[in-house]
Design goal:
CATH superfamily: Galactose-binding domain-like
Distance between the termini: 29 Å
CATH class: Mainly Beta
Number of helices: 1
Number of domains: 1
CATH topology: Jelly Rolls
Largest sheet: 5 strands, antiparallel
Order of helices and strands: HEEEEEEEEEEE
CATH architecture: Sandwich
Shape: globular
Length: 154
């Protein structure tokens, strides 16, 4: 009986120690659902411990938004103050023309992983997302954008 209790406690501890979690923030303040190019969205996260994480961009839009992809410029600042800027093309449809967003009624949500198994040190991270459509002043039919950090450490 003692062996079973000890095994159960070890199993419970292992499950708690390997708990995965997700940090997520979104912003949806877009007048007339237009994301202006100058309207850079900033998201700050406090990472409490060193971890490996998948980093994703969250994008909510109106169904049939008039475009199949959205170019973004993303700047990531780590706790040491170092910045990295990357270009990302959010694809709303696959090669077959099928929607990649999950839609309920007229509202669609897309989550696109931009970095997998990224080592993240304890500290504050700042993510800046900018609409990078070069020939348009705004992207229409945008409801919200955000960043998600999923701890995948074991």
């Amino acid at each position: 009986m003692i062996v079973k209790k000890t095994f159960a406690l070890i199993l419970l501890f292992a499950m708690v120690a390997c708990t995965k979690f997700t940090l997520s923030k979104t912003e949806g303040n877009f007048p007339d659902n237009r994301w202006e190019r100058e309207n850079i969205q900033t998201f700050e996260f406090e990472v409490k411990e060193d971890m490996d994480a998948d980093i994703a961009i969250l994008f909510s839009h109106i169904d049939a938004p008039q475009y199949d992809k959205v170019p973004l410029e993303i700047t990531i600042q780590n706790p040491a103050g170092e910045k990295e800027t990357i270009a990302v093309m959010l694809r709303l449809k696959n090669e077959a023309g099928e929607e990649l967003s999950d839609c309920v009624g007229d509202v669609c949500d897309l989550e696109t992983v931009i970095r997998e198994a990224t080592p993240m040190k304890k500290g504050t991270y700042v993510f800046k997302l900018q609409n990078a459509f070069a020939k348009y002043k705004f992207t229409p039919n945008v409801l919200a954008v955000g960043v998600s950090i999923e701890n995948i450490s074991h």
